[in-house]
Amino acid sequence: MKQTPPTADADLGVTTIAGGSAGVVTRGEVRSLPVYGPGGYIWMPESGGAVLVIKGGPGGEEQCVAGTRQQPAPEGMQPGEVCIQGPGGGSIYLKRDGSIRLRGDIQLEGTLRVNGEPYVPCRCGEEETV
């Protein structure tokens, strides 16, 4: 008996179970699918979202969620630039000229350095209390 050769296929699906181990309906519902993304990105699909499902292995039984349809690019975005957008409107936009645009409620944790030096906020004009 001849073994079935490995195949690769893709399909558009809709998530039914959100999170890092997703449930997706393509031609039927499949649960506990691993979620993959580009290196360094952590993404958890939302329920009801359209996602790309990659099918592989003999008979296509091995499946994973690989991504979702992109949001519209920021106005004027150039080839090679990267913009990571969250569902609440926050974004990190890495521009070709080396600048970074952050949008949203920005909370920093850890040490902030400016030109290699620890940042110390200016208390200019404040009266010193003893």
Weakly predicted, low-confidence segments:
none
| Shape category | elongated
Class per helix and strand makeup: mainly beta
The whole-angstrom Rg is 22 Å
Describe the sheet with the most strands: 5 strands, antiparallel
The count of strands amounts to: 10
- Tally of contiguous helical segments: 0
- In what order do the strands lie side by side in the largest sheet? 3-2-1-4-5
Query: What's the N-to-C terminus distance?
Result: 88 Å
Query: How do the SSEs run, as a string of H and E?
Result: EEEEEEEEEE
Q: What portion of the residues fall into strands of 2 or more residues?
A: 35-45%
**Average predicted confidence as pLDDT:** 87
Helix content: under 10%
Overall number of structural domains: 2
What oligomeric state is this?
single chain
Detailed description of the structure:
By secondary structure, the chain is mostly beta strands. It has 2 domains: 6-68; 70-130, no CATH class. Helices cover 0% and strands 42% of the residues. The chain contains no helices and 10 strands. It has strands spanning 6-17, 21-25, 29-34, 50-58, 62-68, 82-85, 91-94, 100-103, 113-114, 117-118. The strands form 3 sheets. A 5-stranded antiparallel beta sheet has the order 3-2-1-4-5, with no helix packed on it. Strands 6-7-8 form a 3-stranded antiparallel beta sheet, with no helix packed on it. A two-stranded antiparallel sheet has the order 9-10. A hairpin with a 3-residue loop joins strand 4 (50-58) and strand 5.
